[in-house]
Amino acid sequence: MEIRKRWSDFLFREVSIAPLIAFRIVIGLLFLFSTIRFISNGWIKQLYIDPPFHFTYLGFDWIRPLPNDWMYLPFIALIVASLGIIFGAFYRFSSILFFLAFTYVELLDKSYYLNHYYFVSIIAFLLIWLPAHAQFSIDAKRSPSIQRNTIPQWPIFILRFQLGIVYCFAGIAKVNSDWLLEAQPLRMWLQAFRDLPLVGNLLATSWVAFVFSWFSCFYDLTIPFFLSKAKTRNIAYFFVIAFHILTWLLFPIGVFPWVMIFSTLIFFPASFHEKWLNPLQKWLRWKSIQTELKITRSKTVIACLSVFIIVQLLIPFRYLVYPDNLFWHEEGFRFSWRVMLMEKKGYATFYVEDRATKGSIEITNSDYLSPQQIDQMSRQPDMILQFAHFLGEKYADTTLHFGSKSVHLWRPRVSADVYVTLNGRPNQHFVSRETDLMQEEYNLKHRKWILPLEK
Predict the structure, then answer these.
(1) Which of 75, 313, 439, 452 is most buried (most C-beta within 10 Å)?
(2) Packed helices 256-263 and 230-250: angle between N→C axes, nearest 10 degrees
């Protein structure tokens, strides 16, 4: 009972709403920028309209891209929703719209999975339930009764918790022999900068790779705690900026560094956010209405927050139910905040075969997949299996020509010869052509048909 009371006291302690308002504006601007960037780079057509096949997530096979130019519609919705979040206009509708549109796009094809896409979906989901429009918003202007200067602490806490989860699990994931004892894959990646003036030769040395590996592990494991303490917050945020700008300069990881740099401002106290919110409110002639807040301790809020926290803590550890090397079979790899942990390349050749005559044709992967899809598929078992099943269905009940002989395939055999290299190891056989992939089910079970990592 004592623990429950302390947990309730913590969640419902009255605090300033300023950090939440600042977070709404900043994250909304990041949402808007990212969406416009995605459209301007032509990625909608390249990633979702042109490819004839998409690698759906298990259980979400029913989610498909909209036909042709209709695929631009979700991104228009994202722009509208982002503006609604920034200005707090029809905020609940805007946050729901953003969450649904963004998550829809994210679920279309796992080839494009990124940790920060997953992070954005979670943050968008959380925004639905947070009173981030209760001050300095169009909604509050239209309905002064919703205005609040203070709120319970739990909305700000849950955002800080989610950011802490990203960092801490990224650090836990780095506690492995490749990262700490071999400085891989950083040692390989930094070699690419050998020709840079002044710092090239330094970056190419092994000891720098080891320093980066160990420091990044320590950084991820500890930065949320340093940001949470007033005495260490400023120096910790300096390292947040330095760390993410350095990774942005060295590696092609899109807007993720900027998302983390600006999102972690939520760790700063209300006085920090008020320093720029107050002048902005004054410039826009915003009149804040002082309303008395009566905090009600909701058991539903406590239960939902507790469940959310437990789920977020458990999901990254689901890989423990699978045997063998996680980086090799990647079962339980996604949605576990494993950021830039491995260099893995594969080469996959698929064959459609007649079971009776043993005649076969070799598939040209680029006939069905984009370069990024091919790159991702060639080293991820679930995607290899999905593509094999796609080929089996496509060639079922068709006639193939093997030289001068024509054979009608009712239920073809599909196999693949796949070789993969992991973190600088030599190429190893990943999938044997002896395996009939049409006989393997696409599910969450351990895939025994993946050949074991030899070294």
Answers:
(1) 75
(2) 170
